[in-house]
């Protein structure tokens, strides 16, 4: 007997004008008018996070239909990567072109959840553009990679407001992808893909031939 085919769901794809209209196309800085470019994107069921060339993170809440803005203090630089996480608290990690990494712990209206916006900084290890970010499912670990091949592990204690960071791996080429699960970090670079076992601090390369 032939199996019954699952129903086909048709979806319409269209520009998110309600989102784009909430982001300025230009800003005024002194006597100069600066064009705003959208440089990074991540989504989940609760939020749409958009990074920009002016160092501003635009975070759209899908449930409340509200747009909020977050930025780095100091100089204005392009955001190169954003990564959302929904666990007990809502978190968003942001990386920039100069290697700055920050984590925003978002405010929630739900009982028992975070009631004050907090920010954690990964201090001074990366010196070049952030190209990848990966969360652990519980939000206690963040891995960041840059275009010089450095991978940094940050341990977050959200209750104590502490972020401790250390360099765990250094590759000879740019990091292009990170993913973490069950104490294993998947790392892809321009030259190879490897598994980094965080407890043993050992590396297992996937395949034998370098990428061309």
TrEMBL record:
<dbReference type="GO" id="GO:0032527">
    <property type="term" value="P:protein exit from endoplasmic reticulum"/>
</dbReference>
<dbReference type="InterPro" id="IPR015943">
    <property type="entry name" value="WD40/YVTN_repeat-like_dom_sf"/>
</dbReference>
<dbReference type="Pfam" id="PF00400">
    <property type="entry name" value="WD40"/>
</dbReference>
<dbReference type="GO" id="GO:0005737">
    <property type="term" value="C:cytoplasm"/>
</dbReference>
<dbReference type="InterPro" id="IPR001680">
    <property type="entry name" value="WD40_rpt"/>
</dbReference>
<protein>
    <submittedName>
        <fullName>TCPR2 protein</fullName>
    </submittedName>
</protein>
<dbReference type="InterPro" id="IPR036322">
    <property type="entry name" value="WD40_repeat_dom_sf"/>
</dbReference>
